[in-house]
User: What shape does this take?
Amino acid sequence: MTVLASGSKGNSTVISSGRTRVLVDAGLSCRELLRRMAIAGEDPAQLNAILITHEHHDHIDGLAVLARRLRIPVFFTEPTHRAWVRMLTPKTTMTYAKWLDHLQKEKAARAQATTAAIPVQELDAAATGAAQFEAIASISAEAATLDPLVNHSSADVEVEENEDVCDEEATAALPSSVKADPTYLPAVEYFRAGTPFSIGDIDISPFTTPHDAADPCGFVFESEGIRMAIATDLGYMPPNVKAALKRIDVLLLESNHDLEMLRDGPYPWSVKQRVLSRVGHLSNDATAEFLARDYDGGSAYIILGHISASNNNPALALLAAEQAIGGRMTLLGNRVLTADQAVPMEPISL
Ligand SMILES: [Zn+2]
Ligand SMILES: [Zn+2]
Assistant: This one.
């Protein structure tokens, strides 16, 4: 396992066996992912596939460009793929005033066409439409505040320009109709949480995670008797996740926030509520509780990931996990590490 990045600004991890390599999530630009793979000694040309846990920006931002460039298939659940396509498909935008005006004109046209009185349900339909419009507007406003990557700064714009160069190389041989489609991928494969599948000699068991995305999941990977797992982006530890995380040799586990730092920190109240909810992220305490009560103690390495930059620090996460594991830490087992947002980790090989 090589964690290239972990945190709310981008996630990506390489899992490899003797003869198969997969990338889990592509939450940094293609260029940055390639740079980090070079630093970590991972050869992008050796990747066989990309697997996606869920469609949040910090897991998919470099996906299309990277998959096109490497010409490798992308594995999604069908709802996650659909959500991703929806995110990238340009919507026709209309201001509220324009939309009301449009509605009025339609209504006038219909009234002209018939001498009958305007039926009551038509007014209802307009009211329902307005409510829906407001709901959609508030959802997208919320999404914008939830995800720091949505609020593009000038630095992000620069990354996107670089990304275009990356994309040009990736799509040079493609017809222009395909180039214009931001959702084009060389190949898409669907899997379902709860149904194991294989890529090369890696057996993969996806499991459902409680998180506010279309169909989020984590993975257990098994090859040559070694088992590795990725369990980040989950609001709590449900029984199915506890059951999936048995006999794991290398475990990338979320330890997102310190409860006090989150409470006193800079996030707006609505975002704090979302992080704390049962479809948000695991706190240091929640992770420690899992490690103390449910974890079987059999891992060689536990990597704490998706550590919040605003509401946590690696030392706090590490302390909570180490206290929970207590006397079970040895030279060969239960070593606890933290994954970083800014730099790739040393590859962990068993
Ligand atoms: Zn995430
Ligand atoms: Zn997420």
